[in-house]
Design brief:
CATH topology of the largest domain: TIM Barrel
Structural class: alpha/beta
Radius of gyration: 25 Å
Helix content: 25-40%
Strand content: 5-15%
């Protein structure tokens, strides 16, 4: 670790002895090396640019290339845009909004408006000016005693351990400044989450970190102790995540520091295992009982589930169980297969799980058809970064969105894609104490705050242009899409829509259900996951 840290500073550090050794031969050369040393010292001490702070002198090359890049883009960078999870334009937009810089662009759109699948907002000739401060949604039904007024954009689940301590602190302080929520990820609540008091959504996954027994099972007493903290506003039971649904994980014992062990409730000197499935429940009814238990143990706080939709029949089984038992989660977060993570097998990241738009529409439609949509709020996550991304999710049925990479970019992430190596150059996704110093909490917390605030203002502008006063007013009729025949049509005309309670009607009505409801709804079984007898 020390050798890696020294190598980053070596180009700067050698300038001091070089200046001394060059003095007898050339005063100009000595002065030049002296200037380089001073510039490196300035880089090392400044707190605005993480790459320069971690890579004195050499880090300046990155910002020099960034400065001239707009002029070179059309010649060198266009082909590379499709190879990255987010384009440089999107990342630049986040940087500008988080730094309160000009995020506008001149000379018109660079988007191909005539390709199949192109989407745009249908604007109104009577635009309005909605107030972004009102963009909140109340989460918590009749079974809940402590409902929560949630922002329409929040920080998606990223664990301490995947993120550095300073990254967690900056995210939470930014959430506290902006009045939005910070999802802990499955790594539980650490001291770094508590330091600045930002609202938390505590994610409980298959490892039950922070509320587990010594053998890795759920511990009700330890859960209640943490869940009743005023800082914890909602509880989220993670069934699966978009980047690697159905896949567990292992944090090698070498990476289980004392802080991580304390936060997760695991011993040091042992691998920290996240199983692929939960042990607290084995069928849909047991899951709903578990949700009800968590709600009671937390003092009546909203409890929901997070999943990437896989086999539709399994989701239908859960909805049937809700109908039959009368028990429902307070919310469902739909994660798309395009979502990210610090480390995932390539096959899982590319080929497992349902994309966000399909999963979101399936979940929304099924809850509407089962007569449950008014009782259950829906969140969406998976490459959500811009105000248009949020508006699209709202049109597909979401009540709010969560973003991970958007807030990582606000912290200074440059998308080096080295999260799994512990060598993150900006200190965001690393436990290296030297690399972590690149993140100055006070500065990056402000950027997190401004990214959220300016994105909410952008969402207000988009909704206002469509003549809408509230995110609740957004519908598939306000989003246009170009179909395979090249015709422009509303999103509403291209997607299936169920009527309220349609799934509960007579068999003749059910026979007219769109796919996949017609195939799986009637056959699914609330007593176990999937099709009865399968």
């Amino acid at each position: 670790m020390a050798r890696q840290s020294l190598s980053r500073y070596l180009p700067w550090l050698v300038t001091a002895p070089a200046a001394i050794l060059a003095w007898p031969f050339s005063a100009w050369a000595s002065a030049g090396f002296g200037v380089l040393f001073v510039l490196g010292w300035v880089d090392f001490k400044q707190d605005k640019q993480a790459v320069r702070r971690n890579y004195p002198l050499t880090g300046r090359l990155r910002y020099a290339l960034e400065y001239i890049r707009p002029e070179l883009r059309q010649y060198f960078l266009e082909d590379d845009e499709q190879k990255l999870p987010f384009s440089r334009n999107q990342r630049a937009m986040v940087y500008a909004r988080s730094k309160v810089q000009n995020d506008k662009r001149g000379f018109g759109s660079i988007k191909d408006m005539y390709s199949a699948g192109t989407e745009w907002i249908a604007h109104s000739l009577q635009p309005v000016q909605p107030d972004p401060a009102s963009f909140r949604i109340r989460v918590g039904g009749s079974q809940c005693q402590q409902a929560y007024e949630l922002s329409r954009l929040n920080i998606s689940g990223m664990s301490f351990g995947a993120l550095s301590p300073n990254a967690v602190k900056a995210l939470n302080k930014g959430a506290a400044l902006g009045g939005f929520a910070h999802d802990t990820g499955e790594g539980s609540i650490s001291a770094h989450h508590r330091e600045h008091g930002g609202d938390l959504i505590w994610q409980i996954a298959s490892g039950y970190f922070g509320c587990r027994t010594s053998d890795g099972h759920f511990d009700p007493e330890r859960f209640a102790l943490q869940a009743q903290s005023p800082q914890v506003k909602m509880i989220e039971v993670k069934l699966s995540q978009g980047a690697k649904p159905g896949h567990g994980g292992v944090l090698p014992k070498a990476k289980v520091s004392l802080e991580i062990a304390e936060a997760r409730g695991v011993p040091m000197g042992q691998d920290c295992v996240s199983p692929a499935r939960h042990s607290a429940f084995s069928n849909p009814v047991e899951l709903l009982n578990f949700v009800a238990q968590l709600r009671q143990l937390s003092g009546g706080k909203p409890v929901g589930i997070k999943l990437c939709v896989g086999q539709p029949a399994e989701w239908f089984s859960l909805v049937k169980a809700m109908v039959q038992t009368g028990q429902t989660p307070d919310f469902v977060v739909v994660d798309g297969a395009e979502g990210g993570t610090g480390a995932a097998p390539i096959e899982f990241a590319d080929h497992v799980g349902m994309p966000l738009r399909d999963g979101l529409r399936l979940v929304h439609n099924s809850l509407v058809g089962a007569g449950l949509r008014e009782r259950i709020k829906i969140g969406a996550s998976g490459k959500v970064i811009s105000a248009f991304d949020i508006a699209r999710c709202l049109a597909l049925g979401a009540d709010w969105c969560n973003s991970a990479r958007g807030f990582m970019f606000a912290l200074g992430c440059i998308q080096s894609r080295s999260c799994h190596t512990d060598h993150c150059p900006t200190g965001v996704a690393t436990q290296d104490p030297v690399r972590q110093r690149a993140i100055v909490v006070t500065d990056k917390a402000e950027r997190v705050y401004y990214f959220h605030a300016n994105t909410m203002h952008a969402l207000a502008d988009i909704l206002g242009a469509a003549g809408l006063q509230s995110p609740d007013d957004m519908s598939p009729n306000h989003l246009m899409v170009r179909n395979d025949q090249g015709h422009a049509c509303t999103l509403a005309s291209t997607i299936d829509t169920l009527a309220p309670g349609q799934l509960l009607q007579d068999p003749a009505s059910q026979a007219r259900l769109p796919s996949p409801f017609a195939e799986f709804w009637h056959a699914s079984d609330a007593a176990h996951w999937g099709v009865a007898g399968a």
